[in-house]
Amino acid sequence: MTEPILEIDAVSKRFGATVVADDLSLTVRRGEFFTFLGPSGSGKSTILRMVAGLERPDRGRILIDGRDVAAVPPWHRNLGMVFQHYAVFPHMSVADNVAYGLKVRHMPAAELSRRVAEMLELVGLSAMSGKNVTLLSGGEQQRVALARALAPQPRMLLLDEPLSALDEKIRRAMQVELKQVHRKTGTTFLYVTHDQEEALTMSDRIAVVNQGRIVQCDAPAQLYRRPRTRFVASFFRGCNVLNAVSTGQGDRSASFEIAGTRIDGVPLDGGARVGTHVAVRAENVLVGPQAESSPARLSAALVETVYRGTVQDYLLRLEDGQELVATTTRQIGVPPGTRVTVGLEPASIIPLED
Q1: pLDDT tens for residues 117-129?
Q2: How far is CA 256 from CA 83, 106, 268, 277, 342, in A?
Q3: Could you tell me the pLDDT band of residue 165, with boundaries at 50, 70 and 90?
């Protein structure tokens, strides 16, 4: 396993009565793309600022390369940072923006020129090196900020929602570019976002943060397919959370009753605690003719159909009043109010711990 570059050890932080970090501990591996994901106010940006040295924890330790950095000022931590808003110097050219941190470090002129050229090539801005930065688009300005932060070869690059001010098309393109830059440089990226798709697209691991606590830390596919709690399941778009009654549990599987229908053979992860809720992703909910061969069939009323281009969302109400969404490429061709069959495959049902 790759050695850790960052260790956050039992860190707590309050602003008045608001807890933004609550006995928080985690380890980030060298070269990892690690993302803090959570809603506004969850504490994720404050965690990043404590790593940067812009805030100090009330309790606990932050270690970088094994050294407690509590007494180390931000400018001596050798960390790069990219902010949400385009933090570029408007009176400078693209090249001068990228060169700024290198000049502060008194890098020799020949080496500085080589490094600036290397960074501009990395972010695809070589042809714009002499252009004033204010003449660039938002996405291009954020590329300049990225190149400037990477130029001094920081131990880690900290990115605080750097794509949130961009429009959707540019944001999606930048997600791919950031992932490629990370792979090419091998620099450890510590990223903050509230956007689930952004986190899933780029990250090696994701820590889901809520009220200053990490509620689940996993690889993107594991978080998406096997959330452990109601909060994580509800936070990821397209995941239904349903009330369920546990009717039996073995070592590897459990049985549940959902809206009066018993479903056997629901797989359990090792050591999973069965609660009173389950999750099922919308794309795994079968509806209409597709549901007829399912081992678990429930009756539901079609509440609404939402056209989303390549797929349709069907909002359904089960007999006990619970609602869920089925997402499919197929049309079932019935109007709202029609009763339809809903199919749930045991393997696609995710028991939640709370």
Answers
A1: 999 999 999 999 9
A2: 46, 66, 12, 9, 16
A3: confident
Q: What is the Cα–Cα distance from 193 to 306, expressed in whole angstroms?
A: 28
The residues near 175 (Cβ < 8 Å, ≥ 6 apart) are 163, 198, 201, 202
- SS3 category, 345: coil
What the block records as the tokens of 219 is 């690889």
Residues comprising the chain, all counted: 354
Q: For residue 251, count CB atoms less than 10 angstroms from its CB and return exposed for 0-12, middle for 13-18, buried for 19 or more.
A: exposed
| Contact status, residue 278 vs residue 258, Cβ threshold 8 Å | yes
Distance, CA of 161 to CA of 173 (rounded, Å): 15
CA distance 272 to 140: 46
CA distances from 191 to 120, 158, 199, 205, 299 (A): 22, 6, 9, 10, 43
With CA atoms as reference, report the closest residue to 168 among 146, 201, 145, 191: 201
Q: Is the whole model's pTM more than 0.85, yes or no?
A: yes
